[in-house]
Amino acid sequence: MILIQQVKVAVESDSMEILIQKISHICGVGADEISRLKVVKRSIDARKKPEVWIVYALAFSCGKKEPDILKRLQKKKIAASVYAPKEYRIPSATSVLPPVVIGAGPAGLFAAYALAKAGCKPILIERGAPVDERKADVEAFWKEGRLKPDSNVQFGEGGAGTFSDGKLNTVVKDKFGRNHYVLDTFIRHGAPASIAYDAKPHIGTDILMDVVRSMRQEILALGGTVRFHSKVVGFTTSGEATPSITSVTLETGESITCKQVVLAIGHSARDTFRMLYASKVAMQAKEFAVGFRVEHPQAFINEHQYGTKYMDVLPPSPYKLATTLENGRGVYSFCMCPGGYVVNASSEEGRLAVNGMSYSGRNSKNANSAIIVSVGAGEYSLTDPLGAIAYQRQLEEEAYALGGGRIPQQLLADFRANRPSSAYGSFASENKGGSAFANLRPLFSEDINASFLKGMELFDRKMSGYTRDDAILSGVESRTSSPVRIPRDSGFESNIKGLYPCGEGAGYAGGITSAAMDGLKVAEAIIATLNQE
Fold first, then answer.
1. Phi, psi torsion values for 455, nearest 5 degrees
2. Lowest-confidence region among 240-244, 304-308, 516-520
3. Could you report the per-residue pLDDT of 24-72, keeping only the tens digit for each?
4. Chain-centroid distance, C-alpha 438
5. Would you say 346 and 352 are in contact if contact means Cβ atoms under 8 Å apart?
6. Which pLDDT band, with edges at 50, 70 and 90, does 95 fall under?
7. pTM
8. Which numeric CATH code is attached to 2-82?
9. How far is CA 413 from the centre of its chain?
10. What is the Cα gyration radius of the chain?
11. Mean pLDDT, to the nearest integer, of 443-455?
12. What are the beta bridge partners of residue 274?
């Protein structure tokens, strides 16, 4: 097959028939000679508004003519090559003791999935609830304020990503085919086929719930075990010079004998981080970022990104903004949710954190994104592995107090003036969990506040009107990434042999796809170890 990049079609003419005509013209062959046409990538190019193009990378067959066509295209300096995608395969393995996977977020779910595919019959342990029960718990919390500490936006089947936009784009290089495997697995379990080729793929929290449920069912069908409402509170080891894992202990007192444990606990398992630290698992505090969710009307974002001609035609537009200030702090957008909701994402009583979420249709009236400022040694001790967690908790306690348990919000103009808001401007917040007006300035130091405002000013130069007075700020965005890193060696093990730190919670991923890919890497390492025994 031949792969051709940068095939542009007008928005109004976007169809498979037009794509075949384009390929026919580019290659100088009849349309009837083209077969097995496959969309490899699709993106929107709106850099020269008002003209907007749909841009494709297309793979296709032309029989015996392919070598000659490819030479001709390359001679014309058309971006063409042989289409040879990397095929990812999971080798088989046998295990006397089933590997244990702690955490059913993307990293743990894919680690367990790969181990089950290999024939290892893993035991997947999740402190929270299965996704249907979890959904009911989260919706009850948003409506009535009844928080379940182990079944909420952070904990439960699917992990924190289940109640997010379900974005699947990643900057992680994919020379081994893991990214494609993750996307293809999602598709096999109910995700739309378009995630395999959209430049910025997303599933949406409604569909993602179905996907993770289906993956769990396949793990069970392959002989694995999945245990919910099962919190790991300790582990045992053997050997002094080089301790090796021998069992994990559940909150019920039950002990599970094992030799390999995947530690995919997510970025919010603060009690587990404390247990690991007390158990002498090597850990480091790390820098991360904090800030606010910022809401704008989605129509405003669409008009800026697409222009007036296509703002109501194309899907709700995302955006990405980033800058580094003279003071060394980074300010950037994070987890941007087109047509989304600001959600109360708390997991501890008396503490409040926010996140963004979209359903598959991305059909709320607002866009929201975290606008966050990098933090580190100026806010907590980097020599204390638990120092960043204490800083997060302090912010979340203050946010809870400001909103009385609801999401504290403030208009940008009032934030600048250091006064609480009393009403929305030309648009209202789209949120889950309720909100209350407050003054958000006391949450952060004036250096962080000034950095946030400076970043917003610079973003306004890229997206005129971004700093409109009635932009809505919600606090506090404190769970942007793990506050710790658990070091691992070249075999993916921690200082405890057989303990495999994995995913976002361990500091090795930054989103659904990268966490899932890390889960596959760790599973590969375990399979290789088993095959050497």
1. -60, -40
2. 240-244
3. 989 888 888 898 999 999 999 999 999 999 999 999 998 888 988 999 8
4. 29
5. yes
6. confident
7. 0.94
8. 3.30.70.2700
9. 31
10. 24
11. 98
12. none
My answer on whether omega of the bond before 476 falls inside 30° of 0, hence cis, is yes
Give the pLDDT confidence score for residue 171 in this predicted structure. Answer: 75
Averaged pLDDT for residues 200-205: 92
128-157 average pLDDT score: 96
CA distances from 269 to 110, 128, 204 (A): 19, 11, 24
The pLDDT of residue 3 is 94
CATH topology of domain 100-283+487-532: FAD/NAD(P)-binding domain (3.50.50)
Range(s) within the chain of domains with CATH label 3.30.70.2700: 2-82
pLDDT at 29: 87
Q: pLDDT exceeding 90 applies to what percent of the chain?
A: 87
Query: What is the CA angle 199-61-21, rounded to 5?
Result: 70
Cα distance between residue 446 and residue 443, in whole Å: 9
Mean pLDDT, residues 349-353:
97
Give me the helix-helix angle, 106-118 and 178-188, nearest 10°. 90
State the average pLDDT over residues 123-147: 96
Bond from prior residue into 50 cis (ω within 30 degrees of 0)? yes
CB 384 within 8 A of CB 296: no
3-state secondary structure 311-354: CCCCCCCCCCCEEECCCCCEEEEEEEECCCEEEECCCCCCCCCE
- Measured CA to CA, the distance from residue 146 to residue 141 in angstroms comes to 5
Domain with CATH 3.50.50.60 in the chain: 100-283+487-532
Could you tell me the CA-to-CA distances from 41 to 38, 126, 273, 337, 433 in Å, in that order? 9, 35, 40, 21, 37
**What residues have CB less than 8 Å from 246, skipping those under 6 apart?**
235, 236, 237, 238, 257, 258, 259
Residue found by looking up tokens 């994070």 in the block = 334
Which of 246, 248, 291, 307 lies closest to 272, judged by CA? 248
